[in-house]
## 1
Amino acid sequence: MYKSLIAAADLCDRMGVEIPTDILLDMYLYDVVKTQAHYERVLSQAVRELYNGKSSEDDFLSTMTTLLDEQTRRAWNEGMRLNDLDPAKDMTEAFEAELRNIQDEEFSHVDGFIAAIVQAGKDGTPVDPLLTRAGLWASRYPDIVSRAQVFTAPKDLNFRWIYGDTIQHCDTCSKLEGIVATAADWADLQARGIYPQSPNLDCSGFNCDCHLDSTDDDVTPGGIPSV
Ligand SMILES: [Zn+2]
Ligand SMILES: [Zn+2]
């Protein structure tokens, strides 16, 4: 059945028929589709509807809340599985608390986002920058996976900060590149807001493609440099 639902959605796309946001959201929640692209599509459509006055701020908030809840938990679970943990069995109170921190952080930007959409709709300024923001939201997924992996790893497992494909690296990323430290140390840094793609990096995380990889190598003498 899922296949035919996806085919139906594709057909609507090709014919330029808009699928209602609540149905798109249900498709996401019921596992019909679970991709970053789909997440972005639901969010973009919700942005357009609020912008055009076709939906209310409350509608938008409820769509966004459902999406963020689902997306952050799914990313978190994926991070746990990278440590061979089963999210259904191995979730601890500390893990739940950290996931809630991540969720709170994501939610803290929602009010500002809603205000910006409503204002742009009133002023008639272009919707494109808001759709770009929706895209950025969807692209947080891998960074949450990584944070969960580091947080739920055995504390003495080592991780190395590795540059991604970014051409120009910022000061923070340059200082951390190649550094090997324990999961515990990286988790401490994470608690201070520094991790790959973090908005607190010098590059603000835009285009940062760095990641942390587990390694058997020894920790870098001197530990993580201050950033
Ligand atoms: Zn950077
Ligand atoms: Zn980077």
## 2
Amino acid sequence: MDVVSLRRFFHQHAEVGFTEFLTTSKIIDVLRSLDYKVIYGKDIMEAEKRRGMPSEWQIEQAYCRAATADWIEPSVLEAMKGGYTGVVGILEGTCPGPIVAFRFDIDALPVKESEDPDHLPQTLGFRSVHEGNMHACGHDAHVAIGLSFAERMASRNFCGVLKLIFQPAEEGVRGAYPMVAKGILDDVDKLFCLHLGLGAPLGYVYGGSANWLNVTKYSAQYYGIAAHSGQSPELGRNSLLGAATSLLNIHAISRFGSSDTRINVGLMEGGTAANIVPSYAKMLLETRASSEEVNRELERRVRNILKHSADMHDLNCEIEIMGRAFSIQCDEELVRLVMETARDIAGVNYVHDFYQASAAEDACYMTEHVQKRGGQATYMIIGTDIAAAHHNERFDIDEAALPIAVDLLSQVAARTLTERC
Ligand SMILES: [Zn+2]
Ligand SMILES: [Zn+2]
């Protein structure tokens, strides 16, 4: 199984969070062909703990799209109906030992991929065929690495149990929590998570990471009253004005001397026509902070602004939290283990301890859960040169990072899946 071809397959079939039907089906196929036990559907996800779900229409659309692929077994797809995507592969070694898990996120982003002739996926013919969905963060590579790594381990030449967690909906920090709630991480002794790139060039490996930001994702909806904008505008209540007022004021929240912070209103939409006072508006936004306390304070201020902007314009406002994540604490012992292993991997030139993340990741729910139960966890970064920033429509990785990552994970697994002393 060629890791580059796998990556290109997943890149070409990009699916956003909780709609990864085709992606999950392919992962299940490969894992089954390698004799892994696979669990998926409602067996890996607590239904009520899912947050920030796409609309039923979006889920159905993606489901029907996947159903047209004749290689997918209908019963597999059926088990995922309603957005129960993702899969866990389990392989038992030939002797008793620890349970070691590796986590790979599998979702794409709602980005329309570039058609520029110098964008390599376009030139080489593996641009996303799902218009408006794009692997602009490198999770296509994560899946491919996970499957090639699965193949390397398939000989079962180890002690203990290998657990491969293919997690949906990382973007928006949504998919990890329902998997944790279902108990997927309950028996894990050691957990390794990873990300490619994030500013680390090809040849770099960080054994761990720090300075992850706390993040809160919100959806805000304004409800007003529609009216004729010429004849009787005074009878209307303009929802877009409420949204616009709050957008400017949310971005005007003060910076904090005590913490790094970020604020972004990433979407604002509403209204239907030029001659109708808009009765509905929607916003998607987020706050981030290095301090949990400061992020809570940002949350309080955002709610205040959303509510008072609604009051100013006589509107109703509904606020929903779509996702939350907190900082990840890596265990030094695992960070050192990854560093020592990385030094012997061909293609790795620089090995460091802690990558300063300044981003957010819902792997935090998994790492914290494992650590609270006495296990250890780390979140490593594997370098790759990138063509444009993460989440940009021209994002692309250097595929030379893929075999490096597979070698690294295989060696990390060999060092950890050993007899208990
Ligand atoms: Zn991302
Ligand atoms: Zn990512």
